[in-house]
Write a structure and sequence with these properties.
Helix content is about 65%, strand content about 0%. The protein is mainly alpha-helical.
Length: about 475
């Protein structure tokens, strides 16, 4: 049998030329299809562009010469000199050392608890401090290792102390909150069962006066305020509806609101901004605007004065709508409030003069400092009286001031002013005119401000010699008449 000569077979057809190198590379990488070189430019390009396997196999890391001199801190360290450790091995060695330390007689009593701590010890907080440096860095000395261990133990101890202190603070706050809640509950029970049912007989009792000084419980505050203010003007719900409808009609009848109504609209949205309940769209926005609008129609001789919105807002937070209007109208009708809201200059000077008498009597150093600095009572007392201390004090402290104000009358407003000055006397003595005016316009909200302020108020009796507030006020009026 003759073997056919290779020359007898027809030569295979030349491979097709590809239009781009991508197709050529794809054909070359296709399995089972040999690719022949036809000597064209595509073949030359293909021979110069190795495949992915050849590319990555050709990228070998250059060997590091063992004899290259250099600073080993940033250079390559031969593996034989400082072999690297895996993270698992470092963790195992660390746990072994910790278990050995915990098995000593000092830590033997800890037992399983110490073992749990070792298991929960995070590698990230210990490897950087307690373990050796990476292979490409110089090794730690024994002194440095000991110092790092001490620093780590100090950090852990400090963190535990801070955590313990914070836990104790939270526990104290919790206990204080529970104590206050229990005290408020017991006080509310006394007011509801003993004092309010017998208001006329119990109002002036020693028990009621002491409970009143400590602050009224929120659940009875509105009722006590309304009883304390009274209703000398004999305002009824029907009268309120009449003036409310007039205010609404007045607002609709003018294309542009009057000055008073415009001022009310601006102040309502700014009232107690931290609570957001009086903002536009808030639950009490329209109610506050209705109360103030009805009052401007009820007392056009007084009108609206900035500061009224804060007073009405405080009443809204504690009473219903009709009772708010009744208490608000009767409260402004008191001599002191009426003098300040109507701008009775002569009567305001009388109140300022009376206050100065007690100021000089109780705080002589601060009094003369104010005198030398040019600080007059109208710079701070105007805002304090007009807002009934809602502008300079936090809401909770202002509520307590209102409580005792309804118990003691206008005298307590000026006594509170002296208490504030006594509380901040050390700071005010080192201030000038502008700094004092800015400081007293918005007092700092310190911790336990209510207790500290009322301690200062309690230490400020309203006595000038043997004369009380009303006697000094009357003497100022008599001196004005004689002059």
């Amino acid at each position: 049998m003759m073997t056919p000569s290779p020359l007898s077979h027809p030569s295979p057809p030349p491979p097709p030329r590809y239009r781009n190198t991508f197709e050529c590379g794809r054909r070359q990488s296709a399995p089972g299809q040999p690719v022949q070189d036809d000597g064209g430019p595509e073949s030359e390009l293909q021979s110069r562009r190795p495949g992915l396997a050849e590319y990555f196999s050709s990228r070998k890391q250059p060997s590091v010469s063992q004899n290259i001199p250099g600073w080993k801190l940033f250079g390559k360290v031969p593996p034989k000199l400082s072999p690297s450790k895996q993270a698992r091995i470092i963790q195992q060695e660390f746990e072994a050392r910790q278990i050995a330390a915990c098995s000593s007689p000092t830590h033997h009593a800890a037992g399983q608890q110490s073992k749990k701590k070792v298991e929960c010890e995070p590698l990230s907080t210990t490897a950087l401090i307690l373990e050796d440096r990476p292979p490409n860095l110089p090794a730690k000395s024994a002194e440095e290792t000991q110092r790092h261990r001490q620093q780590y133990e100090q950090m852990v101890a400090g963190a535990k102390r801070r955590e313990l202190k914070e836990a104790q603070r939270r526990q104290q706050q919790k206990e204080e909150r529970l104590r206050q809640e229990e005290e408020i509950s017991n006080t509310s029970l006394v007011w509801n069962q003993h004092i309010l049912p017998n208001w006329d007989a119990m109002r002036s009792s020693r028990r009621a006066q002491d409970l009143w000084w400590g602050g009224l419980p929120p659940s009875v505050r509105g009722r006590v305020w309304s009883l304390a203010v009274g209703n000398e003007l004999n305002i009824t719900a029907e009268l309120y509806e009449i003036f409310l409808s007039r205010a609404k009609e007045k607002g609709r009848s003018f294309s542009e609101p009057e000055d008073g109504l415009e001022l009310i609209s601006q102040d309502v949205s700014r009232t107690l901004s931290s609570l957001c309940v009086f903002h536009k769209g808030g639950p009490y926005h329209d109610l506050l605007q209705s109360i103030l609008g009805a009052y401007t129609c009820y007392r056009p001789d007084v009108g609206y004065v900035q500061g009224m919105s804060s007073m009405a807002a405080m009443l809204i937070l504690n009473m219903d709508e009709v009772q708010v209007f009744i208490s608000f109208s009767n409260l402004i009708n008191r001599p002191c409030q009426l003098a300040f809201y109507r701008g009775d200059h002569q009567l305001m000077l009388r109140y300022f003069g009376t206050f100065q008498v007690f100021f000089q009597e109780t705080l002589p150093r601060l009094f003369f400092h104010f005198q030398s600095s040019g600080v007059t009572p109208d710079l701070y007392l105007m805002d304090w009286i007009l807002s009934l201390y809602m502008k300079p004090l936090p809401l909770d402290v202002a509520c307590r001031v209102w409580d005792v104000f309804f118990r003691d009358g206008e005298e307590f407003l000026f006594r509170t002013a002296l208490g504030i000055l006594r509380l901040h006397q050390d700071v005010l003595l080192h201030m000038d005119l502008i700094s004092i005016a800015q400081f007293l316009s918005r007092l700092p909200n310190k911790e336990l401000l209510s207790d500290r302020l009322f301690s200062c108020i309690l230490a400020t009796p309203m006595l000038s010699g043997n004369r009380k507030w009303t006697q000094v006020l009357s003497s100022c009026r008599d001196s004005e008449r004689s002059s």
